[in-house]
Amino acid sequence: MRVLLINMPWSPIDLPSLALGILKRSVNEKTPGANAEVLHGNLDYYDWLTGRPEFADFTARDYGYYALASYFLGCGDWVFSSALYDDPEWRVPEFTESMTRLLDEKRLAVTLELHRTAGEFVQELAERVVAAKPDVVGLTSTFQQNTAALALAKHVKRLAPEIVTVLGGANCDSEQGAAVHRNFPFVDYVVRGEGEVALPQLLNGIRDGSDLSGIAGLCRREGERSVANPMSTAPLPPAAILAPDYSGYLDRLAASRARTMVEPKLVVEGARGCWWGEKHHCTFCGLNGSFMQFRSKSPDAFFDEIVGMAREHRVLDIYIVDNILDMGYVTTLLPRLVETGYDLRMHVEIKANMRRDQLQLLADAGLVFVQPGIESLNTRVLGLMDKGVSGCQNVRMLRDGASAGLTISWNYLHGFPEERDSDYDPVIAQLPVLEHLNPPSDQSARIAIERFSPYFNRPELGFAELRADKPYWLTYDLPGEELYDLAYIFAAPPRGVGKATAKRLNEALRAWMDAYPTSRLVQHDLGDRVVLLNRRRLFDWTRLVVDDPLEVAAFRLLAQPRSAAALVRKLTERLPGADAGAAVPALLERWCELGVLFTDGGQYVHVVASAVNDEMLRLGFMRNVVSGTVDAPAPAPA
Asked: What pLDDT is stored for residue 401 in this prediction?
């Protein structure tokens, strides 16, 4: 049995498909007589586009826009709707009217041309697929792959009805997969949930002609009727999660026009589910789909997978897809990665309350790109999200991440029921204090309602009137109730702060993003004093020496978020003879005016990142300040 697994656009071109890598290994190891190969349809599409005169200027960055950046606009899926419905003009007027205010003129024109020509690519690819004579074609669908995958399945089935078509992936979880199977009869089977067990079972059943009703999550047909087997009630144990087989990907990339445009990265998986979500499911998050239960591979197994893959493929850039880092890895996996001496550059998602020493270990182990799920800098709004952190803890994460040399990727969200303008006003006023730290990846966005999130499952939380988001209506020719089951993103009446507050927030975030490349605030702790060096646009001092014993102690204590009362207590314990109660209020006020502190929810935390001498010298500050030979503090601005 020949199985052809196809990774369609808009899967990123700098990454192999983790899902298909796992399925390739699973089929080849668990299905006697079967041979699975992966066809990189995403790279085929990039080469097809850039070989045409009308797309001569189409870049990898443009591809990335449709792969990820435009996800909530649905541009990538709409492009291939023309191929799905065999109509190059499919809903062009509706799309154009909807997107005129959201896309610039050039982007809109490119999107319309991609849409007009998508059917040609799909037809050519389908002919290639059929010529290869597979018995089974398997397609994965995540993010904006759905219409491209469906379109190819339709064209393949039209050319060769005997080829079995199977669809799976995150877009096929639970009700979504059942809706796909009901509405698109050219898809023979849909695998819902974790596929590394179900797909080999399906292939064995097809080969043997055996009953398929016991395969958990499978959607199949009895005559003309779509039947959905019950979903599995237990997630796959971690020992059963296979390492992916990426053989062939790097060779295909090397032959692609994209080879000089992107740096390839490997994709690995250490865990599934979310240990925080098991206790406190963040109200807006639907990423874990049907299974929240956290399970992780053994540290030894995950170490062998990372190091083995880096050695095999000679690639050091690695993307860890886990929704949250297993904290047990901090003391088991990470020290071993440090010992390898490999110059790994890995991306990982973490919780925002990790300590400075833990962040430094991440950096030392090569996990230098982190996504801590910050989302807000206000404690009350974070409470509405059920995030389990405070605004000051999130600022501490930004500061300590900078000190450890990490690149922090994060988003600022708004639009939560019961949030108030007063939750945002003090944060907006203080954002210039933070301009030396990693800004959010983009301006603040009103939250989208995701399937599987508490906001979706519990209308009493504030979103009772849900319907499939507008891009689904522009893309599919389906009634509303079917779109509801197919969709992952839902539209709802706006909640929380209004446009005026959102506009002020975004103006302040844009100023932060613009100022970040030239802004610095660093410290050098000399034991008996701490030297602060500053270059931020709204604070005109360049050097501040903290040398009063009480102030030095206070500064060090404010490395952690503390209330004024807690700070007084700690200072009194450390300096019994000092009148901390009298000194602290004025000190906090002065440091807030100088932009040394961030305050929220009654807590204060200092925002000064640590820096080595070389960095301070690079910034042009005086050598004697850095080396510690300054005998007197610089006068503070009035």
From this structure: 97
Which of 148, 147, 227 lies closest to 188, judged by CA?
A: 227
Angstrom distance (rounded) from CA 480 to CA 608: 52
Q: Note the pLDDT tens digit of each residue in 371-380.
A: 999 999 999 9
Instruction: Give the list of residues 6+ apart from residue 277 with CB closer than 8 angstroms, or none.
Output: 285, 288, 292, 294, 323, 324
Judge whether residue 160 has pLDDT over 50: yes
Sequence-distant contacts of 583-586: CB under 8 A, at least 24 apart: 583/550, 584/554
C-alpha to C-alpha distance for 37 and 35, rounded to whole angstroms: 7
Whole-prediction pTM:
0.94
Q: Quick one: which of 215, 27, 44 has its CA closest to 125?
A: 44
C-beta of residue 571 within 8 angstroms of C-beta of residue 578: yes
Is the previous residue joined to 10 through a cis bond, with omega within 30 degrees of 0?
A: yes
Distance in angstroms (rounded) separating the CA atoms of residues 7 and 39: 6
Q: Are 431 and 509 in contact (CB under 8 A)?
A: yes
pLDDT at 291 over 90: no
Hey, how many other C-beta atoms are within 10 angstroms of the C-beta on 464? 10
What is the DSSP pairing of strand 609-610 with strand 520-525? Answer: parallel
As a whole number of angstroms, the distance between CA 227 and CA 230 comes to 10
The residues, any chain, with a CB within 8 Å of residue 537's CB and separated by 6 or more, are 432, 435, 515, 519
According to DSSP, the residues that pair with 228 across neighbouring strands are: 219
Q: Tell me the one-letter amino acid at 99.
A: M
Q: List the beta bridge partners of residue 319.
A: 267, 347
Q: Find all residues with CB under 8 Å of 220, minimum gap 6, and list them.
A: 181, 188, 189, 212, 213, 226, 227, 229
Q: Look at the block and give the residue holding tokens 């007027």.
A: 93
Q: What is the largest CA-CA distance in the chain?
A: 89
- In the block, residue with structure tokens 């089951």: 485
How many CB atoms are located within 10 Å of the residue 426 CB?
Answer: 15
Residue for token pair 């030095």: 552
* DSSP-assigned beta bridge partners for residue 448: none
- Tens digit of each residue's pLDDT (9 = 90 or more) over 298-338: 999 999 999 999 999 999 999 999 999 999 999 999 999 99
The whole-angstrom separation of Cα 77 and Cα 472 is 9
Range 579-606 average pLDDT: 97
Q: Looking at per-residue confidence, does 341 or 617 come out higher? A: 341
What SS3 class is residue 19? helix
Do the Cβ atoms of 450 and 489 come closer than 8 Å? yes
CA 352 to centroid of chain Cα atoms = 14
The whole-angstrom separation of Cα 290 and Cα 213 is 20
The DSSP H or E segment spanning 490 is strand 489-491
Short-list 579, 571, 535, CA closest to 555:
571
**Percent of residues, the chain, with pLDDT higher than 90:** 94
68 — pLDDT class (breaks 50, 70, 90): very high
For residue 188, pLDDT beyond 60 = yes
pLDDT digits (tens, 9 = 90+) for 419-449: 999 999 999 999 999 999 999 999 999 999 9
Query: CA separation (Å) from 330 to 266, 296, 316, 323, 379?
Result: 21, 13, 20, 16, 27
Q: How far is CA 226 from CA 149, 189, 206, 397, in A?
A: 19, 9, 17, 49
For 596-618, the pLDDT digits (tens) are 999 999 999 999 999 854 444 33
